[in-house]
Amino acid sequence: MHKLLPDRQPRQLGNSDISVSPIAWGMWRLTGEVAAATALVHAALDAGITLFDTADIYGFDAPEGFGGAEAILGEVLAADRGLRGRIVLATKGGITPPVPYDTSADYLAAACDASLRRLQTDVIDLYQIHRRDFLTHPQEVAAALTRLVEAGKVRSVGVSNHSPAELGALQRFLNLPIVSTQPEFSPLCVAPLYDGTLDQAMAANVSVLAWSPLGGGRLTDTGHAAGALLAEQGAVYGVDAVAAALSWIMVHPARIIPIVGSQKAARIRASTDAFKVEWDRERWYAVMQAGTGERLP
Fold first, then answer.
1. β-strand 257-260 against 124-129: which pairing, if any?
2. pLDDT per residue over 34-69, tens digit each?
3. What is the Cα–Cα distance from 6 to 255, expressed in whole angstroms?
4. Is 127 marked active-site?
5. Which of 214, 206, 212 has its CA nearest to residue 230?
6. Which of 278, 248, 244, 257 lies closest to 9, judged by CA?
7. Which InterPro entries match (predicted)?
8. Measuring CA to CA, which residue among 135, 133, 136, 154 is closest to residue 145?
9. Which of 13, 148, 167, 171 has the fewest CB neighbours in a 10 Å radius?
10. Whole-angstrom Cα distance, residue 196 to residue 264?
């Protein structure tokens, strides 16, 4: 029976000239001392992870506050100028507490400038609209993103938490490609399989970055049916349920890039165990059904 194995090779970020790793490291929980953050950055690089994903909202519910995660990473990059050239730096804008969302042209221009300052860099490799602002026309968003690219502040653009229709509407007004989309995806959240997100991505060569690939940690619980199956599959290859969960995501033909959210160096390094886990269709679909609690027709 044909086996499915994650592709460990770097790949292009959508229709861009940017090469990225098949696993990303996310910083939504990055907090604390710069020295500790530096160790995590090096752990990711040691694991071959080059795509680093953050957002201006990260840190809002931590002592650092709005922009905190970006600021910590910026301090890490400022302390060792050689690091910046080794990573693909992705961030997001558009969530504006206490007002939910704002992607108006003026706001995006200011938000991007603020991210650049906090990150202590001249350019953001991937700038993503974090969530859809229903009160801004996609033509205005497109114009704002175009200006950021033309100004040299942003190399490429993407979206997060956008439906296929929302991505399509934005792309309609853009003369540059949307290179990535970032949905929640795991055996516990399979909506992208059905709502057209993954199909659109494959058809248009849009990279898929999956957030919460471990289902908020629930998939590491062997008391959950899907977690038990993942642990069982991982054990066959001498790895844990985390590696199996990442592998489960990565064997999809959209070549999904899971965003590892751990803030522990050992766990970041261990994410590459995902490349050891093979799947056949029977086991892959068994995990899907256990995750959703619904039998396929």
1. unpaired
2. 999 999 999 999 999 999 999 999 999 999 999 999
3. 8
4. no
5. 214
6. 257
7. AKR, AKR_Detox_Biosynth, NAD(P)_OxRdtase_dom_sf, NADP_OxRdtase_dom
8. 154
9. 171
10. 34
- CA terminus-to-terminus distance, the chain: 22
Task: Give the Cα separation of 115 and 93 in Å (integer).
Answer: 8
pLDDT per residue over 129-157, tens digit each? 999 999 999 999 999 999 999 999 999 99
Model's pTM, two decimal places? Answer: 0.97
* d(C-alpha 25, C-alpha 182), whole Å: 13
Distance CA 46, CA 44 (A): 5
Tell me the pLDDT tens digit for each residue of 226-242. Answer: 999 999 999 999 999 99
Active-site pick, 58, 101, 107, 127: 58
Rg (CA), the chain: 19
- The answer to whether the CB of 225 falls within 8 A of the CB of 290 is yes
Residue the block writes with tokens 């934005």: 170
HSE at residue 286, side-chain half, CA atoms within 13 A, is 12
d(CA 197, CA 256) in angstroms, rounded, equals 11
CA distance 257 to 116: 24
